[in-house]
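Lab channel / #folding
Pinned by the channel admin:
"Please post every new chain as: sequence first, then the structure tokens as a reply. Keep commentary short and put observations after the output so the thread stays searchable."

First post following the new format, from NK:
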Amino acid sequence: MGFPINGIRMGRGALRAVLVAGVALGACAAAHAQGTLVVSIATDPTGFDPEAVQNNTSGFIMGAVHDSLVAYKPGTTEVAPGLAKSWEVSPDGLTYTFHLRTGVKFHDGTPFNAAEYIRTLDRQLKKDDPNTVYNTGPVEGYEDFTFGAVASYAALDNGTVQFKLKEPNAAFLNSLAMVWNGVVSYDAAAKWGKDFRNHPVGTGPFVFREWKSRDQVALDANPEYWKGKPKVEHLVFKVMPDAQAALLALQRGETQVMGDVATQVVPALRADRNIVVLTQPGLTVNGMAMPNQVAPFNDKRVRQALNYAVDKEAINKALYSGLAVTMTSPIPPAQWGYDPSLKGYPYDPKKAAALLKEAGVQLPLHAELLTYNTPRGYNPAGPDLAVALQGYFKKVGVEVDIRKLDMGAFLGTVRSGKYPGLFLVGWSGDNGDPDNFVAPLWGSYSMPVGDTAHYQDPQVDAEMKAAVLEVDHDKRMAMYKKIQAQILDGAPWVFVNSTLLVRATRKNVEGFKLSPTQMFFDMEQVSLKP
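Reply from TO:
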């Protein structure tokens, strides 16, 4: 992707794309007067079943359709009541008892209660359940991550659910609040079967109406929402992969929120007095994964060499408009547990060349670099990052060919466990706990959906598992300090940067708050001034 900004002439193809987008959004602009909030997103979702689908774009919609047992306080990852109004944890950290709200209904009219929640858990966790999620297609979920320590769960009465754990899990409450643990209607899942991920039914503020692939997802306000009816009648997520078209739509008022902000449009957004640019420190990491099991990348020296080969500070300035900081640790500065004493891999092409020579690499080394084709929340520069990396690698004798895929195909490829090349990689934290970075990204037990670099270190695996069992915060801090240093030394990725979370809204949008997880939570609070 190039860097078109105000003052640079667009080609006919780009102009035509903008004009077509403007015509297509005409209906949305007309609907705006009727209380429709339109959010532009850069890529198409892949489904809406939180128990089976794991990608941020899908999560954007799921966060508006589903509630979880507990929630995050707006703008934070601090746990707050959700479908459970209160809870107790036993002194030994092994028993969690949740007291559920009464009078809550799923969008299909099914009452939410303890028995229904247990049925949802059975669908998620028991492969012999007649409507198990594993019968619906490939499952990319957080079942093991969230519930791996659970020994049993039961409804004590109609309004009380209890979990008993085999061992403490310091992140259990935070994980229950993730969008990926949104509570679904068991009856709707049984009705739709394999197609449920295209017809979500939750208890959230908005009701799913339709999904037009590569066009838009339309939701309607839930008039019976337990927090109160949303302040807009309709919520539309409009797929707009072209950054300039998304910019123009926001400037014209055809959309009211830009969900995926490409760095090249930030100057124009900031210059428009009718637009507000919202930022906050991001729970994000961004870089390039190497196939740690494939020669020559199975040699740590080669992986370290590629880290030294890249000038991350220059990339931050050229591609990210000052909205990123260089990664010096595998977890971002906004995440508690981050170790500021780590120095990362400063730009040192001579050291990179020496390490490649030491590892016996015959130059030029050829490889493929796979990239997605649109900006992401953790990488607003999108595929331009791949081009920058390509240039730096060439200087040390590593020649890469770039291949672009849309996000769905990209994820399918890198999560297959079989892709042997280099690929862009990133992560947005889901629950505010450092385990949510190190375990899914570099715990070998997370493969193939997680740990897509196939980094395998038994000692690090054991230390990760020990850290999440520890309930003493200071001890956990010390444990994650050691884990960070080990992963950094192992260099499974080229660690590039951590980006700020950036979104833009029209000035007439009120009540919209950023979430550190990047999800669209609390959308019932958003309104539009006339």
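NK: The chain has 17 helices and 21 strands.
TO: also worth noting, The domain at 284-499 is CATH 3.10.105.10 (Dipeptide-binding Protein; domain 3).
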